[in-house]
Write a structure and sequence with these properties.
Length: 323
């Protein structure tokens, strides 16, 4: 079944059996053994099978069926239900997915929805360290959380690189609508990332500070490591958002400065052109008696005066930086 990625039983940190999903209800595990089942967008029938076999809570199963849940940690008796969000880059856009983890004595069931990297790498990493996997279900939970948080880092690095390019573009190229739209797009993506990263800090804090079932005190240092990574990613997101805000303000400020420069040039040229316009307007009036109308050198004198006045104004504007 495509919905079933893996279904295996572990004991002492090693895989001892691969169990067909059809036999999940009849296969019995012994002391120190646990199931680790990976599902990808399972249907209602498969979730019902998991619920019946491991006595999963109705509310947790409903959340896993509907997806679109906020990151959270729920405790149901001696079991926990964990919701985490994944992020990856596709075509320059950040795509989000969901991972739901059911964990209790003797089982781990992780359910993936949407854009998410396969957890085969997590399983292989755990199986390559049997001494750590021997810790049990809580180490598997840590491995999944650590994998998800580590996958945030390439996404953040790619966004950070694009922010740096945007900064160079802002100061080296003229104002454009596309730059503003991209800045707003990045701010939205960072806000979405913050909404999925911030709860992980609270979840790991709760795991380390409260008596959460399945989580043993010996694995607290591992969850503290996830906490530190999530905190660092969260701080980087905040820094990038502030940087984008500053970049947007700088972009708008530069656009305003450029507009002022254009207005200054237009005003300077308008002042220069006002001289011949005024003279032409005065001598364009149809009066019979006006000074120097019949003077032999009047035309050339007026042209010379207008040219001299325009040249003087151009020199003054040029000197003051308006032209």
């Amino acid at each position: 079944m495509e919905m079933v990625v893996a279904c295996a039983v572990y004991e002492g940190g090693r895989r001892i059996a691969d169990v067909p999903i059809e036999q999940i209800e009849t296969y019995q595990t012994g002391p120190g053994q646990f199931f680790w089942i990976g599902l990808h967008e399972p249907d209602d029938a498969l979730l019902a099978k998991m619920q019946k076999r491991f006595n999963l809570h109705d509310l947790a199963v409903e959340d896993a069926r509907n997806a679109h849940q906020r990151p959270k940690l729920e405790v149901y008796g001696d079991a926990i239900f964990l919701v985490l969000h994944t992020a990856q880059l596709k075509g320059g856009k950040v795509e989000l997915g969901e991972t739901h983890v059911f964990a209790g004595p003797g089982y781990i069931v992780n359910v993936r929805h949407g854009a998410s990297t396969s957890y085969k790498e997590v399983r292989a990493r755990c199986e390559s360290s049997p001494k750590k996997l021997k810790k049990g279900e809580d180490f598997v939970i840590y491995s999944i959380m650590d994998f998800i948080v580590d996958n945030y880092i390439p996404v953040i690095d790619a966004i950070e690189e694009e922010v740096e390019k945007l900064e160079e573009t802002i100061f080296n190229k003229p104002f454009s609508r596309e730059i503003v739209e991209r800045i707003y797009g990045l701010k939205r993506e960072l806000l979405s990332l913050r909404h999925i990263v911030s709860p992980i800090v609270e979840i790991t804090n709760r795991m380390m500070r409260f008596d959460v079932p399945v989580i043993d005190k010996n694995t607290y240092p591992y969850f503290r490591d996830v906490h530190d990574h999530a905190l660092r990613v969260n701080e980087t997101i905040d820094s990038l958002r502030e940087l984008l805000t500053s970049a947007l303000e700088a972009n708008l400020l530069l656009a305003s400065v450029n507009q002022n420069e254009v207005m200054k040039k237009l005003a300077g040229w308008a002042a220069i052109l006002a001289v011949p316009t005024a003279v032409a307007g005065i001598y364009g009036m149809n009066f019979d008696y006006m000074p120097e109308l019949r003077w032999k050198y009047g035309y050339f004198t007026v042209l010379a005066g207008v040219a001299g006045a325009c040249a003087y104004l151009y020199w003054r504007f040029r000197r003051s930086g308006w032209l």
